[in-house]
Amino acid sequence: MDPQRLSELQLDALGEVGNIGAGHAATALSQLSGSAVQIGVPDIRLMPVTEVPGFFGGPENLVGAVYSRLLGDLSGGLLFIAPRLDLLALADVLRSRAPGTSKSLGAEEEGMLTHAASVLQAAYAAAIARFTELSILPAPAHFAFDMLGAILEVVTAEMGMQADSAILILTRFETEVVSVDAALLFLPDPDSLDVLLGRLGIV
Question: How far is it, in rounded angstroms, from Cα 166 to Cα 160?
């Protein structure tokens, strides 16, 4: 199925899956940071992979990304994406520091952010698995800080992508003192979207 031809009913169902995943992700981030984290209603979009950079200032804009390959009944990739300033804000949240304390993405920050993003990815995957009764498991995560266009090229080449569409989940995480804008990008392998929609009963 072409993701760009989904009906309103199918989009609503995917949005509900995204809402459930977001709730699990907020809980996981609260546990990691030791402080309450709220999450806005995710904005779910289906689009060609080539249009994704437009939501982050263009393909040459620098972003941090954490990539995990999906294994199991749904195959594809999960990519956590956030601009540099939002990554630094998230690092401050995770370390219980005042906003603006982190000035650079060193090895310690990269490791912490990779761990946090992998936990968030696992939370989304677990929520989808429970909702659809599918077996889904993210592989170990990898961090990159580069131009978004270059990151997407590497990821799609590594996956041997045959499809060129993606599900973009735009999310805002908020604490009492800071907000972090990030996105989770699901890059489905061929047939995986059909499997997901089939379990939702809306093919």
Answer: 14
What does the pLDDT look like over 165-183, one tens digit per residue? 788 888 888 888 888 888 8
**Mutual angle of helices 192-199 and 107-132, in 10-degree steps:** 50
Q: What is the pTM of this model?
A: 0.85
Q: Look-up: residue for tokens 């990304």? A: 65
pLDDT average, residue stretch 66-93: 88
As a whole number of angstroms, the distance between CA 18 and CA 49 comes to 19
Contact (Cβ atoms closer than 8 angstroms) between residue 194 and residue 203: yes
Q: Give the model confidence (pLDDT) of 105-148 as tens digits.
A: 888 889 988 988 888 888 888 878 887 888 888 889 999 999 99
Which amino acid is present at 191?
D
Q: Report d(CA 138, CA 184) in Å as an integer.
A: 13
| Total residue count of the chain as it appears in this document | 203
Q: How far apart are CA 179 and CA 146, in angstroms?
A: 22
Give the tokens for residue 45: 């979009």
What DSSP character marks residue 161?
-
- Tokens standing for 118? 């992998």
> What are the DSSP calls for 30-49, one per residue?
HHHHTS--EEPPPEEEEEEG
